[in-house]
Amino acid sequence: MRIRLTIMATVLVAASAAIGVIALLVGMLGRLGLAIGALGVMAALGAYRLWIQPWQHRWGATDEEVGRTMPGDDLIPDAASTTRAITIAAPAEQVWPWLVQLGYGRGGWYSYDWIDNDGQPSADRIIPELQQLRAGDQILMLPDMGPRVRDLEPNRFFVAGDQEAGTWCLALYPAAGGCRLVSRWRVDWPLTSATAFWILLSDPGAFIMERRMLEGIRSRAEALARERERRVLQGGPS
User: Fold this and answer.
1) Collapsing DSSP states into helix, strand and coil, what is residue 152?
2) d(CA 18, CA 111)
3) Beta-carbon neighbour count of residue 229 at 10 Å?
């Protein structure tokens, strides 16, 4: 409930602020104010679409990663893709346990917990009872809402979602000194004024949350890798 209220409040604040600015301009300048407000909104949206959105839709990803075919791409062949990535100084098999326990009511999202985890801190340890992710399991983003796992290969990837709501793949690829964690979202929604408004409103927030999630996974996996290395050097169990 807290998550839904937070999201609703954020949307309402943003919408109210925009309406308030336009109303102020109309009150001060009449029709001229309305025209200025409308042009301002259009300019802001245009700038976002031209410069900010293309950058954040491939944050951290190389040209090769953006162009690479990933598991689940064939579910929506003509969909638009968002590909983000991060380097982690730990092998894939040490990062994978953090991925399989993702989700509301599980290990959390390693992001801004006050928004997406009802204020509960995301896990800072690997939880053994949450390591059995299977096809058909639901990864909750909100209470009672989230994509179901369609396919997975341990230590490599999982794919969740469907053709209607979109698909999400988290995959691990070998890299020097560790691995690359790559996230890909694919959606093919009909372009209407309602969907365009929702995408423009939610898109920046989704980027902010996912970047924090990728960084959160990296910090946890690297911290545990360092701890294991320290134990090995001291002659203890890894």
Assistant:
1) strand
2) 27
3) 12
